[in-house]
Write a structure and sequence with these properties.
By secondary structure, the chain is of the alpha/beta class. It is built from 14 helices and 13 strands.
Length: 330
């Protein structure tokens, strides 16, 4: 009998990658959760063989039927969606800052998913609960960085799962995601910047010596999750496609595409200028934390694939760059 993986946020970047990976595997069925099963992306998933169930992460009772019969649940929550909502309608925050609202919303969503997974009906079949996370910046910086909300919300969710839903925690493994190599599509300052002479500059407020675990989420999330499904539970995998410095990444970009490019370290003020303060507060501390403490903050539980003694097929930076559409910047 085929096993069942239930993917939360199946139409998103991570969820769609997980779905496509498991659809290709013999002996697996894929069920997806989405708020809009009639949407274009959702319907495309149906045509590929995904079973869709309408559910809302704010409504834990809508999640329970979606999880019934699951052997694996992939849990993926979001901070920036609620942040944008709060920025557009501050009356929804209930007196909290927009960051506190987004943090609380993401944690609440993660708890709802875990609570639904903790029902006796779901636990009868559940073998793995895979949670997509980021580093606990406040903890591993010793409290120095207090505003990396999109990291810390996920760490707080894990603490809640461990303390409130021990049966889920026993089945849980975590993929701590690397730096999305595709972030430049949402924040233009992250893209290589074309100069008047046709060359490019890759600017960052980061040291050229800082190693960054780059992730190609739309390609490799499924591989990370499959690796954790195959391992015993309670593993903490660094989801990295390839690690290098931003300076090295610039060289790969230029060498792959045939453009002259230089890496330039700039001040925090220069790099983030023009960005709404609500985003700047979070992202500037994100980059500063990684620069000072490393991407994982030195968390001893987070292991690379090599440290776990496994190999994971991943997308190299050269492969990603070669296949990406750069027409908007070149």
């Amino acid at each position: 009998m085929a096993k069942l993986i239930v993917v939360v946020g199946i139409t998103g970047t991570q969820g769609s990658s997980v779905a496509h990976t498991f659809l290709r595997l013999p002996g697996w069925r894929v069920r997806g959760i989405t708020r809009n099963p009639s949407g274009r992306v959702a319907q495309a998933m149906v045509h590929e063989g995904v079973e869709l169930i309408k559910a809302d992460l704010s409504d834990k009772h809508s999640l329970s039927p979606a999880f019934e019969g699951a052997n694996v649940i992939f849990s993926n929550t979001d901070f920036f969606g609620p942040l944008r909502n709060a920025m557009g309608s501050k009356e929804i925050t209930g007196g909290r800052t927009v960051h506190e609202y987004a943090y609380d919303t993401e944690v609440a969503h993660g708890i709802n998913i875990a609570e639904a997974a903790s029902s006796s009906t779901v636990l009868k079949t559940l073998e793995r609960f895979i949670y997509s996370s980021l580093s606990d910046a406040r903890k591993w910086s010793g409290g120095k960085y207090k505003h990396v909300y999109h990291f810390d919300s996920k760490a707080e969710t894990i603490r809640n799962i461990q303390s409130r839903f021990p049966a889920v925690a026993e089945r849980m493994s975590v993929v701590q995601f690397g730096h999305y190599v595709t972030n430049w599509k949402h924040l233009p300052a992250l893209a290589p910047q074309k100069q008047s002479d046709g060359s490019f500059i890759l600017a960052r407020p980061s040291s050229p010596k800082t190693k960054v675990p780059f992730a190609v989420p739309h390609q490799d999330t499924g591989s990370f999750v499959k690796a954790l499904v195959d391992l015993p539970p309670r593993k903490h995998l660094l989801g990295v496609s390839e690690s290098m410095t931003f300076s090295e990444w610039a060289k790969v970009w230029g060498g792959t595409l045939g453009y002259k490019i230089e890496f330039k370290q700039v001040s925090d003020e220069e790099f983030w200028q023009g960005l709404p303060e609500e985003f700047k507060t979070v992202l500037s501390e994100d980059f500063a934390y990684v620069d000072e403490f490393g991407y994982t903050g030195g968390d001893p539980e987070v292991k690379t694939a090599a440290q776990l003694g496994i190999e994971i097929p991943c997308t190299s930076m050269a492969e990603y760059i070669k296949n990406e559409d750069w027409s908007s910047i070149v």
